[in-house]
Amino acid sequence: MSEKPSNLPVNSDRLWGTILETATFGATPKGGVRRLTLSQEDRKVRDWFKAACEAAGCTVTVDALGNMFALRPGRDPSRAPIGLGSHLDTQPTGGKFDGILGTLAALEVVRTLNDAGIETEAPLCVANWTNEEGSRFAPAMMGSAAFVGDFTVENILGRKDAEGVTVKEALEAIGYVGAAPVGSQPFEAFVELHIEQGPILEAESKTIGVVEHGQGIVWYDGHITGFESHAGSTPMPLRRDALATFSQIVLAVEAIARKHGPDAVGTVGEVTIANPSRNVIPGEVNFTCEFRSPHAEILKSLETDFAAAVAEIAAGRKGVTVEIEQVWRKDPTHFDPKVIGAIREAAEGLGYSNRPMVSGAGHDAFNLATRMPVAMIFVPCKDGLSHNELEDATQADCTAGANVLLHTVLSLAGVANAA
């Protein structure tokens, strides 16, 4: 086996060009990207990605949930591939980098190895996971979750968006119902590059985050049923106000998260009033809620306190019912020491400042870590802003992350030959 090239860089301009090019699929007026999973915009970027991977010499397969896998052969076909990649879908008002950097940097790793005439011992597999964001279909990261067996394929295919479209129907509409069984693509290990989506790296002037842990997450859907009545003629004591009840729940979520802080957060991200009118007391409200913590015991306390708070609020609201369904739960993630070490060694070997980190956001890597050795690489994003059209990262930082990804992958896969 040849020695790993010690300072081989990715093509920075080519990587940056792909980021800007893919940002045209679903581009928004404010410079962001709206590319909801399994939409026509998603189809366009998937088609682009498939063509780019095939042009780089990879064989592309798609599984029954639309997860995409681009395989670059290695010298030793008996080894499972080293996986790298992320996702290409975005939030409704998302940016150019969230997930996309990790997928395009993985493609750039393959292109760089091709340019240098380097064959790895283990194959490489670039992945694009379906519905990481969870903004159209719940749960988030559903493609990777089904891949590791957390959900059945049938369960995921039946999930509906706000318009009642199922995942199955959306996949069929864009032509990405693949023939490969979900979970059939083997991996020896997996590395995911991502923007931090937080302010720490930028604040500390660090270039690389070596992600060692990930927060646990629990998601809820809520439904409140009161009674619609006239806003002018219904006395306050006789009202069955679903929205007023909801407001108490929002404040309870905030109070619970603060109680268990600083390593806890709670968010109500969506709310819908059925048949709203300015002079009608709301009779029905649907909402979402989530809690996160890197500590399992805190996450459990958040769940317990939330259930107690909802029960107390409902009991104090005569004639109003509150239904809460836990739709997704993920325990805190602990990444693999070997992969963490390979990332740290790559960052230090390339001269990049780095620090250990906990991921506040969820990622496909969290799911994959239950089945294989996994770790993540973070790079800074401006003001820690993400899930926003103003999300931004520098070309230099994106390149640094891709370089660390390249050398981490070379360390894990081994080098068969180098030109």
Question: Which key phrases capture this entry?
Answer:
single chain; alpha+beta; elongated; 34% helix; 12 helices; 17 strands; 9-stranded mixed beta sheet; 419 residues
Please give the largest β-sheet.
9 strands, mixed
- Class inferred from helices and paired strands: alpha+beta
Low-confidence stretches: none
Shape: elongated
Task: Give the helix tally.
Answer: 12
Terminal Cα separation, in Å? 13 Å
Tally the beta strands.
17
> What string, H for helix and E for strand, traces the elements in order?
HHEEEHEEHHHEHEEEHEEEHEEHEHEHE
Q: Any idea what the radius of gyration is?
A: 23 Å
Query: What's the overall average pLDDT, rounded?
Result: 96
Which percent bin holds the helix content?
A: 25-40%
Strand content: 15-25%
Topology:
Blueprint: H1 12-22, H2 40-55, E1 59-62, E2 68-72, E3 82-86, H3 100-116, E4 119-120, E5 124-128, H4 142-147, H5 153-157, H6 167-174, E6 189-195, H7 200-203, E7 208-214, E8 216-225, E9 229-230, H8 242-259, E10 265-273, E11 280-281, E12 284-293, H9 296-315, E13 321-330, E14 333-334, H10 337-349, E15 354-359, H11 364-368, E16 374-379, H12 395-413, E17 415-417
Parallel strand pairs: 3-5, 3-6, 6-16, 7-15
Antiparallel strand pairs: 1-2, 2-5, 4-17, 7-14, 7-16, 8-12, 8-13, 9-11, 10-12
Helix pairs in contact: 1-3, 1-12, 3-12, 8-9, 10-12
